[in-house]
Amino acid sequence: MEYKSYVHMLTPTDRKRYQHLREGKKISGFVVQYETKIGDKWYPVVRYDTAHGVAHKDVLNHRGLREKVMLGEMDYKEALNLADVDIRENWTSYRAQFLRRMGKSTTPP
To answer: Are 46 and 33 in contact (CB under 8 A)?
Structure first.
C-alpha cells in the first residue's frame, strides 16, 4: 500500500490538501480539499472524498454545513482526477461563493 499526502499552497490564504491511498495501480481512497484562510482560521470550502465507500463532493459553508453531490458510477481514480482538476481550475469561484455566503467581500486579500 502506498499513501501520498501533500498540501499545495495556491496563495498565502488558499490551499489544496491532497491525500490518496493506492493498492498496486488501484486508488482505494482519497481526499482532495480546498481550504481558505480568513483571519487566523482555515476553513474547508470544497471537499472530494470517498468516505462511506462512495466518491462524492461536499460544498461547505463557514458553519460546516454541507451540500453533498454524488459523483455517480466513476471509479476512484477517475473521481480523484476530477477532484484535482476541478479544484485547480475553480478554486477562485468556490472562494467567492463561500465568502458571499459568509457575508464578506469576494475581493482577494
So the answer is: yes
